Amino acid sequence: MDNAFDCKDRLAPGLDVTLYPLSYSKGKTLRNLRQFRGLLRTLHPDVLVTHNWGSIEWGMANWPGIVRHIHIEDGFGPEEVDRQLLRRTLMRRAVLRRSTVVVASRKLQRIATEVWKLAPNTVQFIPNGVDCDRFARPNSSALPSTGVPTIGTVAALRREKNLPRLLLAFQRVRKGRPCHLAIAGDGPERPALEAQVDSLGLRDDVTFLGFRTDTERVYAGLQVFALSSDTEQMPLSVIEAMAAGLPVASTDVGDVREMVSAENRNFVRGHDVEDLAKSLDALIDASCGARIGALNQAAARKNFSQEHMFATYEALFSGYPTKH
Predict the structure, then answer these.
(1) Is the pLDDT assigned to residue 323 strictly greater than 60?
(2) In a domain, 324, yes or no
(3) Sheet of 150-154: strands edge to edge?
(4) Structural domain includes residue 45
């Protein structure tokens, strides 16, 4: 939608991919609809796939059904953390009622059917999947050896990820035992987070790793994975950490409690700093963390393999019936 096509570099060479730059104008809905509708009629694809609220105008342009439409929702921005916006709810209800809607969490499935009032047989839950072998068998760790247990997170440094909550929780844990915190990821909140680290007196105890493509090597150096977000659905970072055999301490957001092993669920609770600190402190214990990590790894292989995800999407895009 913004003509940023950087991700093309990540596609395998030889794939037949054509990119169409758009003169998209935010707020000029009628102009956008004419452009999108014209492109749909010219290309007449077998299926139109749209993602999240930002592409809803494509669904409008397809009305009443120029081509088969699959809409994928995998989460909300900070403006919908606490509640669904009425205008967006009504728009989704009207535009998506003739579409197949794919959701990445059971929570989203409930929202789609109970709040957006979409027919249950049009809403399909497809869990995210990862390459479990990649995260279970890293070549080495990306973290410097500190000689103490390391808590870590992998996240875009944005406001809704609420890394200040994690820093405060880590400070509480650090008062009681030697430990280290590693933060992998980058984003607009990094300067404020670095300033908070200094103000808390944690400069020697926190490492900012920046953006990493080798996250499997990050997980390899951790004893506990932490998630401190205000909003999530089915975070890939949690699945990756599980596949790496790590216990997870998390705020109770999205499907996280249902994703982790039963033994890990008591450490997914609340939104308070104290709750997160207690979970981190308990899981950093080597015997407890290792046992729960092994159970998480088994759960990741059973429920969140990329092979199952690929097969489900292939059937969906090909028009074959799939299980809901």
Answers:
(1) no
(2) no
(3) 206-210, 180-184, 150-154, 224-227, 248-250
(4) yes
Domain holding 312, by residue range, is 6-129+306-318
pTM of the predicted model as reported, rounded to 2 decimal places:
0.89
Residue 135: C-alpha distances to residues 152, 238, 241, 298, 313 (Å): 15, 12, 8, 13, 22
Residue 227 lies in a domain: yes
Angle 105-111-114 (CA atoms, 0-180°, nearest 5)? 135
Strands annotated E in 204-258:
206-210, 224-227, 248-250
- Give pLDDT, residue 324: 46
What does the mean pLDDT of the chain come to?
A: 93
Which residues are CB-contacts of 152 (< 8 A; sequence separation ≥ 6)? 143, 181, 182, 183, 184, 218, 219, 221, 222, 224, 225, 226
CATH value at residue 271: 3.40.50.2000
Question: Looking at the structure, do residues 183 and 285 belong to the same domain, yes or no?
Answer: yes
Residue 1 falls inside a structural domain: no
**pLDDT tens-digit series, residues 4-49:** 999 898 899 999 999 989 888 888 899 999 999 999 999 999 999 9
CB 211 within 8 A of CB 183: no
